[in-house]
Design brief:
Threonine/homoserine efflux transporter RhtA, EamA_dom, globular, EmrE-like, membrane, transmembrane
């Protein structure tokens, strides 16, 4: 179990690190969010080529696989757009509406069982998101995109559960990267900035950190159950706050800190409630 926890800590730190590299690309080198998202899928698909099998090709004819890739594309593009204008911690806090949305969708569309305690904890986490976002007419556009990214990601998570029996994880991983690359290429093929050594380095780091974190998740899940590891997904928020402070000197304000605390606390309590033995 300790091996799985260590892997989770590394994985959940790598994902915000990839977004930190993407934010540096946009803020310091004037790269567009479209380029950052497209390059992430392009490099990811190349790295995932060894996962290609005959069943992977057959999956490309399934409209549900395209829908799942569209949700991922919308999520990654939206979060990169958010990161271009707002701090890392705020982006990830608003993005964490995703698990809450996935919980609701899974109950409504997949018929998953619901408990009163977990529903109340999800509402508490939603209150935390509201404290970060503070919706209103003067709401920052970046926060709107962060929420949209979370909604796309929540729907992506639900679709992943829906399609889990369709094929092996390696094929599903390759198709989501390859199809997202295909869908974004027509609008992004000419959006690449002039390639310099710093831009090439940050582009590669953005893609490899993000994909590496998701690959490490597979190793963690091979060593412990998904429910026992679920609370540690919130390492992402801790890493995002730390990286935002270290790299961009961004510290959350009071409302955001309270919101982050509610999101992390409710998420951990919800995951622990899911693992509690039933009477």
């Amino acid at each position: 179990m300790w091996q799985a926890l260590f892997i989770m800590f590394i994985a959940m730190s790598m994902i915000p690190a990839g977004d930190t590299a993407g934010k540096l690309l946009m803020n310091a080198h004037d790269a567009s969010p479209h380029y950052v998202a497209w390059s992430r899928f392009a490099i990811g698909a190349l790295v995932a080529l060894p996962l290609l099998r005959a069943d992977t090709i057959r999956l490309l004819a399934d409209w549900r696989i395209w829908l799942r890739a569209m949700l991922l594309t919308g999520g990654i593009l939206s979060i990169q757009t958010a990161l271009a204008t707002i701090p890392l911690a705020d982006t990830f806090a608003a993005f964490f509406i995703g698990p809450i949305f996935s919980y609701g969708l899974s109950v409504l569309l997949l018929g998953e069982k619901v408990t009163l305690l977990r529903s109340l904890l999800m509402l508490l986490g939603f209150a935390g998101v509201l404290l970060v976002v503070r919706p209103g007419f003067d709401m920052e556009p970046g926060l709107i995109f962060a929420v949209l990214a979370g909604l796309c990601y929540g729907a992506f998570l639900t679709s992943s559960r829906w399609l889990a029996p369709v094929s092996r994880p390696g094929s599903l991983l390759f198709t989501q990267l390859f199809l997202s690359f295909v869908m974004m290429t027509p609008i992004c093929w000419n959006s690449a900035p002039p390639i310099t050594a710093p831009i090439l380095g940050l582009t590669t780091l953005s893609a490899l950190f993000s994909m590496g974190g998701n690959f490490l998740l597979l190793f963690a899940y091979a060593r412990a159950s998904a429910t026992s590891l679920a609370p540690y997904v919130y390492f992402q928020l801790i890493a995002a706050v730390a990286l935002g402070w270290l790299v961009f000197e961004d510290l959350p304000d009071g409302f955001t800190i309270v919101g982050l605390t509610l999101i992390v606390g409710a998420g951990i309590a919800s995951a622990l409630a899911a693992t509690r033995p039933r009477p």
